[in-house]
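Inputs:
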Amino acid sequence: MKYIVLLIVLPLLFAFLSMLVKSHKDKLLYLGVIVNVGLLFFIEQGEYIIGGFSKPFGITLVLDQYSMVAVVLINVLFLFTIFSHYQSIQKYSTVLLTLLAGVNGLLLTGDLFNLFVFLEITSISAYILTTQSKKYYDTFHYIIIGSIGSGLYLLGVILLYGQFGNLNLSVIAQQLNHSSNVLLPLLLIFVGLAVETKLFPMNGWVKNVYKNANGLVGSIMASIIASTILFTFGRIINAVYIDTFFYNLIIIIAVLTLITGELAAFNGKTMKEILLYSSIGQGGLATLLMVTGFIFPAVLIITNNGISKLIMFSIADNLSKEDVQLDNLKGKFHNHKTLGIAFTVASFSLIGLPLFLGFYAKVNTIIGLFDVNLLLPAIILIITIVEGAYLMKLNILLWHPGNEGEAVMPYDEEKSTSYSMSMILAMCILSLVLFTAGILPEQYGDTILDKPLLNDTHTEYLIDMKGGM
Amino acid sequence: MINIAAVVLILLGLYSLLTTQHIIKMIVGLNVFEVGLNLFIITIGYRSNGIVPILTRTNNVQDFVDPLPQAIVLTSIVIGFGLTAVALVVAKKIHKTYGTYLINEIGGKVE
Amino acid sequence: MKNILALLLIAVLAFLTMTYVVDNNLIPEYGEARLDQTVSGAYVTQSVTEKNNDVSFGRSDNLETGSANAVTSIVLEYRAFDTLGEVTVLFIAALGVSLLLGSSENFAKRPKSGFILKVGSKIILPIVIIVGVYIITHGHLSPGGGFQGGAMIAAALLLMAISDPQFIPSIKQFKLLEGLSGTIFIILGLVGISVSGYFLSNYMDTGIIGTLTSAGIIPILYMFIGLKVGSELISIITDFLREEAECD
Amino acid sequence: MDLMNYLEIVASLLLIVFGVLIVMSKSIVKTIIYLSALSMIAALAYVLLKAPDVALTEVVIGSGLITFLFLFTYKRQKKVGDQE
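Outputs:
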């Protein structure tokens, strides 16, 4: 299909239409999401121009293999999120439509300023969604940090414009050479995106926002927005030449994010705390891979994390609306066996156990990083053990049969046990995806990624994007 | 000239954002930051012998200042307004919930 | 402690930015921007798709955009997709404001306005609205356009609300108008796909540069942007006026 | 050094002065008014930088509507009357 722009424009059209037919807002949301997923069957790779002006003059949408995977993943995850949490949508359906347009724009656009506009659309939608928890101070914190981030991003973009005279990412990437001094603009762009990527010094907002989020907002923030920003980040980082200082700086920050995130998750006292810190850690890992140029493992990690976090956040919210201490959740899964299995599959895949997608991702990561040096794979292996420890602990706790003599928690004592069929269905399908992708990775790789398992570099991976390193 | 003032405004806005205790003043700081940023963007495209980029009977397109930064700033100002409106409403809600705009007082009440 | 940290951070940023801004050959120095080194060189001569050397007011016809105002031709033609995003941002902001402030029908009791305000606003009001409409319709010829004109009309309404305590804008119609003009904007863009194959392309005759009917689709798009921005701003303002009542 | 250069210097100085005033000021209402003034001067700077479109936008939105939103948000605090 030639008109990739429809992926962005149709959700917007439905959003504007929902102002006219207020009573059918939610139907418009479902329609918009389904139409978008339907469009995915017709998309073809290529570079598409808007308004008839070729780059660098006009705005282009880039659909290469990388953004193809990203768009498919994000739109499908969006569909699953919407259908498994349709009760909590309420009056937020229009915001969700603009969010969908925003994330698609972020993934597709090849223009740096256009990316800023979509970043703002996505983040303002996210701000409004997070107010659903009524913890306004946390939202405010998020707004302030997010605005500083996007402001710094814009400053970086305009400095690049001053230097290169255009705003198109791939054109700027072609003009770069090893002597170009782009440290400050890149640093500003990096800091700007690091807010949403949840990298080390900029992730103070994450804790409060995620902790109070309900299933819908939690899945959207942890799965959809997080993956989108990581994909966007990867595109920019790989398109432009990175000088050694900057490169090492990001690697250090990413490793610090990974370590602090996973250690905090290990010390987490509640379920959502564990999940949110684990999201931070996975974000660090994906950033590390992006910077070192291992796009394919990074895509796998993001995919794995996106699907797993969607399952885990949804189920965590389903178990207890309030974010209670872990001990109160003992043996919960005996009442929801299906959801329990889905959760366990997701957490196994997140750890990287064989039979699941995560294994494939982790193996690719570690084999790839051996080429860089020995320290990074060692860190990742240790972190994987930490990750395994706390996720196993969580699983054992949730499947705990109860001590002898002590009855297993009575069945319908909790009012939070309400869950819908569509949610169970969505969770089962997603965990099945993790499983099949894990046992048939070549199949998965051939059909979706069309790429050999190992040793790919970004230059051959992102079409038309030449970078140094 | 104005570009240096713009950078100073960006820094002042950031400083005000990072140090103040008052939520409204944080949003004011954000606005100062945005004004500085927008001014800076315009100065990137300024030519001291340039003219306003609007064609009339008596001028020539070759003398225009760079119009692209101006288009960018138009977008940026409107986006900044939207952001400010949302931030202010959230501030209002904070005041309604906690009865104060001061961060250190809210910090005690959140826990 | 926090202040010192902030100062340190800002000092670092100041150093980095100032070294970049002052005296280097990375970005053009202040007042030294050069159009021929940027994409704007092609924007002002309107020669992105085909080379076009001569643009003269009132004579050149069938140019790419046909808009005498170069900023307008960028905003609505070369980078029109950004503009769509921009109205969307305002749209979400208005939506978020009304979601957060609830839908109380009570309005704040505004203080009675003085004689001068009352009479003065009655005189100024029509002028402001006419200027707003003028700015919207002449967006391709003179400074201004949909955003500025729409904001001006919204400001006129704000003036009315201040001068007349009884005045309550009906927000429902503005919401409808907002959705309608957004929908029309997108449909106008989608028509471009069927006519010329590109979203938001200028598929109408661009006419002779400098005349009111020039620039093809641009004045039409700007009209709907004006309506949309105006109604969005009005709904934000009304929401702010309304919430006042809740806390009394 | 012609008139425009002097105007540019004056505008730059005024921008910095109002920026400092905003940071230093203790009263919130004053801060908001200074912000409005800062926007006004920024609009002047836009005119000097040959950007009338932006100046118009800044006057209407930055100096007009944003000030209104700020004042209407802040006015509530005075009504509740338990601050500072």
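Remarks. The helical segments of chain D are 3-24, 28-48, 52-80. Chain D touches chain C through 18 residues (CB under 8 Å).
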